[in-house]
Amino acid sequence: MPDQHEIGRRQFLQGLSALAVAGSWTNRATMAALPGDDLIQSITVEAVDNGRSRKEEWAWFHPRACMIPTSDGPVALMTMQRISGSDYFWPVQWCTSSDLGKTWSDPQPIPGLGRRDTDTPGLAEGVCDVSPDYHPATNTTLAIGHNVYYREGCLANPQGPRWPVYSVRDAEGFWSQPQKLVWDDPRGSEIYTSNCGQRIMLESGDVLLPFSFGNAQWPARRVSSALCAFDGKTLTVKQVGNELINNAKRGLLEPSLAQFRGRYFMTIRAEDDRGYVSRSENGLEWSEQRAWTWDDGRPLTMSTTQQHWLTHGDALFLVYTRKAEANANVMRWRAPVYLAQVDPERLCLLRSTERVVLPMIGDGVNDPDRVARMGNFHITNATPDESWVTVGECLPANGWRGNLLLARIRWRT
Fold first, then answer.
1. 257 located within any domain
2. What are phi and psi of 326, to 5 degrees?
3. Which of 19-23, 171-175, 315-319 has the least mean pLDDT?
4. Domain boundaries, position 308
């Protein structure tokens, strides 16, 4: 198995040097509020890790954070892993910040979320696409990803059976050994998963997971939600909602959930140049998905990239990527990253509220290979006054070197 590539505090926490590198980006990303967009005061971007300048060919990827309440104030816990090739991920690591993301502890591996040899010669199994969430009912942190297979330093093709993998961090700070989320349903005989998504910790202590699944009879995956019991140690599927279906290519992928004003919302990655949205009154019975459109009815053009929710007490927002004139040749149009307010009744985006969260750096028309792709981002509500969007830049043309970025969305008070 590859070594854990531990790094020192000076390399990971760039401090003022990272801010100097990101300075021009911060200026470009800071904007006055748009007319009618009174909730957002400002958006700034900073580099948590200045990976573009490192010698080694890798970057931090899938940086996803959650907030843990403590007697000394909130602590941010972030999981991430190195990427050094196409979908080629190293062991999952974690770090914390007790000063709202200004400084971070040294990354360290989560036990068991590395690589292991399988019974098939040359085939290794790892874990990727991990997202952490604090579970208030048990005062634990639940990190969920899914298994993945590698062969000879590359993503294995074909993959073997895939399922969710989770680890639990207890109140004392110790991680459990990873466990498989069991779902004995033939609909998921090839894959059932809850990767890269936003889930909901319910007041009852149950967990509502976004769920996707498929088998040999369905070339296109389907999505739903899974209501799970969680006692602080074991996650158990209790009920799965109705299926949403789109038969284009791989189908529907990487759903994310949000709860807003008593209702549930799902946003869905797809492979037909669209993203999709659905709504539910109870988190299990979902309306037929509809393509994301502007409030004038025009559809957004997206390319097989996840979207995520940004929730505020007074409004619901979507964070996403889309096709635009300036990014026409960027792979899957994965830069810049935008946000816009959602009309929760009409299930559309208010065009006048769109703004850039993470700017595109470079020429997306004439030199797209030097534009960092930012399609694997995550949302964290850090405080009532501030939310984050975190992302690891993907720059294959730069030896996979890229920065770990944190965008701060400050809300008006």
1. no
2. -75, -15
3. 19-23
4. 33-56+303-413
**Cβ neighbourhood burial of 72 (10 Å; 0-12, 13-18, 19+):** exposed
* Bridge partners of residue 341, in order along the sequence: 317
- Report the distance separating Cα 79 and Cα 8, nearest Å: 17
Q: Report the pLDDT value the prediction gives residue 403, as an integer from 0 to 100.
A: 98
**Is 177 strand, coil or helix?**
coil
Q: Is 396 exposed, middle or buried (0-12, 13-18, 19+ CB in 10 A)?
A: middle
Strand 337-343 and strand 315-320: pairing?
A: antiparallel
pTM: 0.92
- pLDDT tens-place string over residues 222-247: 999 999 999 999 999 999 999 999 99
Please tell me the distance from the alpha carbon of residue 237 to that of residue 102, in angstroms, as a whole number: 37
Q: How many CB atoms lie within 10 A of CB 140?
A: 20
CA pair distance 208, 283, nearest whole angstrom: 7
CA–CA distances in Å: residue 148 to residues 164, 198, 225, 313: 10, 20, 22, 37
Beta strands in 153-234 (DSSP E): 154-155, 164-169, 179-180, 191-193, 200-201, 207-214, 222-230
Which tokens is 249 given? 């290519």
**Counted domains in the chain:** 1
- 316 is a domain residue: yes
Specify if 369 maps to a domain.
Answer: yes
The CA–CA distances, whole Å, from 98 to 48, 104, 296, 362, 406 equal: 14, 8, 43, 33, 15
Closest CA to 60 of 382, 397, 405: 405
- List C-alpha distances in Å: 133 to 76, 151, 227, 296, 395: 10, 31, 15, 36, 28
Kind plus residue range of the DSSP H or E element containing 23: helix 16-29
What residues contact residue 107 under an 8 Å CB cut-off, 6+ apart?
A: 6, 7, 12, 80, 93, 94, 95
CB neighbourhood size of 410 (10 A): 15
C-beta of residue 288 within 8 angstroms of C-beta of residue 306? no
- Determine, yes or no, domain membership for 337: yes
